[in-house]
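Bug #77: duplicate submission created two jobs. Keeping one. Sequence:
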Amino acid sequence: MAISVGDNERSKYWLSVLNGWKNRGVKDVRVICADGLTGIKEEIAADLKTVYQAADEKKELDALERVTEKWTPKYPNAMKRWRDKRL
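Kept job's structure:
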């Protein structure tokens, strides 16, 4: 388990945190809370909620498909890993 708390939310900070985790052998990230990182809250978080708040598995899988289609062009590795872990 790895936990990092920083005094800012800049993308360069998060890049250093994630690279640090990777260098220490972290293989899977379950939760990232990044209140001030531009774009996370307004873009990805809203779409992820459609998956996690789905009423049943069919709706969850449909939402997962829509989210991965939307975000794969911008974040191909992240979306592939997320989809592979779920399916």
